[in-house]
Automatic annotation (TrEMBL):
GO molecular function annotations of the record: ATP phosphoribosyltransferase activity
Main subcellular localisation: cytoplasm
Annotated source species: Caldicellulosiruptor morganii
Free-text comment about domains: Lacks the C-terminal regulatory region which is replaced by HisZ.
Subcellular location field: Cytoplasm
Function: Catalyzes the condensation of ATP and 5-phosphoribose 1-diphosphate to form N'-(5'-phosphoribosyl)-ATP (PR-ATP). Has a crucial role in the pathway because the rate of histidine biosynthesis seems to be controlled primarily by regulation of HisG enzymatic activity.
Quaternary state and interactors: Heteromultimer composed of HisG and HisZ subunits.
Protein name: ATP phosphoribosyltransferase
ATP phosphoribosyltransferase catalytic domain residues: 51-204
Gene name as annotated: hisG
Record keywords, A-Z: Amino-acid biosynthesis, ATP-binding, Cytoplasm, Glycosyltransferase, Histidine biosynthesis, Nucleotide-binding, Transferase
PANTHER family found in the cross-reference section: ATP PHOSPHORIBOSYLTRANSFERASE, ATP PHOSPHORIBOSYLTRANSFERASE ATP-PRTASE
Length: 209
C-alpha cells in the first residue's frame, strides 16, 4: 500500500481534489478530512492527514511514501526528499512586509528586527541576497501583530490576497519567493515502489490539463 501525507488546513481540499480528479482514489477524501488516517483498499492507497510543516518529516523518514506540501515549508526545512512536481495549487508568495508608508525608512535602518514563522528563509534572504545581518524573532502565528506592537520592524510571511496585511495597516515591501504546492517523494520509496510512478504520472497529467 502506498502512503500519502496530505496537509491539513488551507491546502487540504485542493490536495484531496487532485487525487479524486486524477481517478487515483474512489474515496471522497474531502468529506473524510476530519480523520487522520484514510484507507482506500480498492486503490491500495492510504492517506495521512498531518500538519503542513510535518509532511516532509513523514516523507523523509519513510512513514509516508509521498506527500503534498507548500514550497515555503520545503525552503524552510531543507528535508532530504525528492521534489518531483509543481502541482500548481496553493499559490501564494513569501513577502517582506511592514507598516504602510515606512518602507524606505525601515529598509534603510542599520539594525533591523524581523518577526517570522520562517527563520531559515529570512536568514538566507537577508544574508545571501541582501548581505545584511538582522535580528530574527520566531513566531508561530499572528505575525502581523509584531510590527504593530513594536516587537519587530518588519515581518516575513506568506501572502495570498494581502487582505490581512491591509486590514492591519501593513503592506508588502519585497516579494521574496513564489510558493505553490509540491509533490515530494521518499528517496527509498521512489526506487522500490512501481505504483509511485503511476501516481506521479496521473497527477502530472491532471496538472498539465
Amino acid at each position: 500500500m502506498i502512503t500519502v501525507a496530505l496537509p491539513k488546513g488551507r491546502l487540504a481540499q485542493e490536495a484531496a481534489r487532485l487525487f479524486i480528479n486524477s481517478s487515483l482514489t474512489t474515496i471522497d477524501i474531502i468529506q473524510e478530512t476530519r480523520k487522520l488516517i484514510i484507507e482506500d483498499e480498492s486503490s491500495n492507497i492510504r492517506f495521512l492527514m498531518v500538519k503542513p510543516f510535518d509532511v516532509p518529516t513523514y516523507v523523509e523518514y519513510g512513514i509516508a511514501d509521498m506527500g503534498i506540501v507548500g514550497k515555503d515549508v520545503l525552503l524552510e526545512q531543507g528535508k532530504k526528499v525528492y521534489e518531483l512536481l509543481d502541482l500548481g495549487i496553493g499559490k501564494c508568495f513569501i513577502a517582506l512586509a511592514g507598516p504602510k508608508g515606512m518602507k524606505e525608512e525601515l529598509l534603510n535602518k542599520s539594525e533591523k528586527t524581523i518577526a517570522t514563522k520562517f527563520p531559515n528563509i529570512t536568514k538566507e534572504y537577508f544574508e545571501n541576497v541582501l548581505g545584511e545581518d538582522v535580528q530574527i524573532i520566531k513566531l508561530n502565528g499572528s505575525v502581523e501583530l509584531a510590527p504593530i506592537l513594536g516587537l519587530s520592524d518588519m515581518i516575513v510571511d506568506i501572502v495570498e490576497s494581502g487582505r490581512t496585511l491591509r486590514e492591519n495597516g501593513l503592506e508588502v515591501y519585497e516579494k521574496l519567493y513564489d510558493v505553490s504546492a509540491r509533490l515530494i517523494i521518499n528517496r527509498a520509496s521512489l526506487k522500490l515502489k512501481n505504483k509511485i510512478e503511476v501516481i506521479v504520472n496521473h497527477l502530472e497529467r491532471m496538472v498539465m490539463q
